[in-house]
Automatic annotation (TrEMBL):
GO terms for cellular component: cytoplasm. One of its GO terms (biological process) is 'de novo' IMP biosynthetic process. This is phosphoribosylglycinamide formyltransferase 1. Residues 5-199 form the Formyl transferase N-terminal domain. The keyword Transferase applies. PANTHER family: PHOSPHORIBOSYLGLYCINAMIDE FORMYLTRANSFERASE. Belongs to the GART family. Pathway: Purine metabolism; IMP biosynthesis via de novo pathway; N(2)-formyl-N(1)-(5-phospho-D-ribosyl)glycinamide from N(1)-(5-phospho-D-ribosyl)glycinamide (10-formyl THF route): step 1/1. Keywords: Purine biosynthesis, Transferase. PROSITE patterns: GART. One of its GO terms (molecular function) is phosphoribosylglycinamide formyltransferase activity. Its EC number is 2.1.2.2.
């Protein structure tokens, strides 16, 4: 029985596309299927990618909650509903693939109560550039001579943002000739492979659950 994946996105969805391709004709064929794609942004191009592949999608945006209930209560209600929706799908695995929203304990507690694991793809090495704009921050650090490599990783998601146990890591050199765009392209190329392999290793049991 193929594992059911629920993929969370916020943008282009090139990593979602890599997962879709792998389930159709790659190492995830007959091992995993993308059952649903959820975006927190209406205009995420990844929604079009999913629709083209015949995958059901939904959008869950924070702004309406903030407008009606204020920032703090709005975020709490948003997270409460998000957790409910994720649990309702009852996936084998949730994959954050460019999901740009910090998941509060309100969400994570609901997932752990239903034993639903969740992973995240991050465009940096463990404990290097946690959070957003990681590629730009790594590039800037390299121009300051502080680092000569960065990378990407897939990790289990915990409350501490990007602090979860790494599942897969790929180191990527930063050369003097690199621009931020060339570095981003190198990282994206490696991410597509790393994420698919990590999902494969999880759904086949090669990587034990945390
Ligand atoms: N509890 C966790 N939530 C999330 C994790 C995690 O490890 N633990 N990983 C992130 C993905 N991510 C980096 O890999 C990340 C995404 C977004 C943010 C962030 O600061 N988001 C802001 C909004 C930013 C924006 O909309 O541009 C926010 O949520 O207020 C940090 C890290 C996914 N979630
Ligand atoms: N902190 C989270 C974060 O920065 N995630 C990054 O968003 C991009 C999504 O690309 P995609 O939409 O083309 O898959 C990826 O580079 C992923 O590592």
């Amino acid at each position: 029985m193929a594992a059911s994946l629920l993929v969370l996105i916020s943008g282009s969805g090139s990593n979602l596309q890599a997962i879709i391709d792998a389930t159709q004709s790659g190492i995830l064929k007959d091992k995993a299927v993308v059952k649903h794609v959820l975006s927190n942004r209406k205009k995420a191009f990844g929604l079009e990618r999913a629709a083209k592949a015949g995958i059901p999608t939904s959008v869950h945006t924070l702004l309406p909650y903030k407008k009606e209930h204020g920032d703090e209560e709005g975020r709490r209600l948003f997270d409460e509903e998000l957790g409910r929706q994720l649990v309702e799908h009852n996936p084998s695995l949730i994959v954050c693939a460019g999901w740009m929203h910090i998941l509060s304990p309100i969400v994570l507690n609901q997932l752990s109560a239903h034993n639903i694991p969740i992973i995240n793809l991050h465009p940096a090495l463990p404990n290097a550039f946690n959070g957003i704009h990681a590629i730009e921050r790594a590039y800037e650090a390299s121009r300051q001579g502080k680092i000569n490599e960065t990378g990407c990783m897939v990790h289990w998601v915990i409350a501490e943002v990007d602090g979860g146990k790494p599942i897969a890591i790929q180191r990527i050199p930063i050369t003097q000739d690199d621009t931020v765009d060339s570095l981003e392209a190198k990282i994206h190329a490696e991410e597509h492979k790393l994420l698919v392999q990590a999902i494969h290793d999880i759904v086949t049991g090669a990587v034990p659950r945390p």
